[in-house]
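name: query_chain
kind: protein
chains: 1
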Amino acid sequence: MSAYPVVSNPYGFRPVNRIDGLPYAGAFRQLPIASNYNTAIYYGDPVAIVIGGTIAKSSTSGSEVTSATIAGIFVGCQYVNSQGQTVQAQYYPGTTVTNAVAYFVDDPMAAFKVAVGYANGVVTTVQQNAVGTNMSYYVGTGSTTTGDSGAWVTAASGNSTSTLPWRVISIVPDTNVTSTTFCEVIVKINTQQYNNATGITLA
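structure:
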């Protein structure tokens, strides 16, 4: 019998704690989003610091992401909308806004909960032997209703390849499908931007 609640769709990456066991205290960093950046960013999307010192999605690919530089996970933003109102939002709409500032969890020690899926986004499972492997991910389609990301890690990708963006550090027993199969895992950023000796180009 499966556990409650049932995970029916991917929802992006959610900060849960640090890999040293300390709880996640809600800390995040704030950096601007470029005024001409017209791609929506959803709560739980991986983001990167790009030229100009601004924030953008780490990848916008509709295909499997097997290599990505990731500074952290997007957890909301502030911007001025077309009516001149300052808005605190779950997601960045990518159009008709100004003065946008991204909030993102950038602690290299942070651990995140994420759903496991097939290439088509259908939630599936892994077993205990996924722990310690590296995984790719899909960006997915975010929801303008909830503001949540549609990202997930790829079940079939678990291996030792060093360029894969995510390291699985544990499984999530609370939503197991059976006693040996799990549809959510805890991961850390494997290709964290702050740990990369190569910086961005000065604009």
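note: The chain has no helices and 15 strands.
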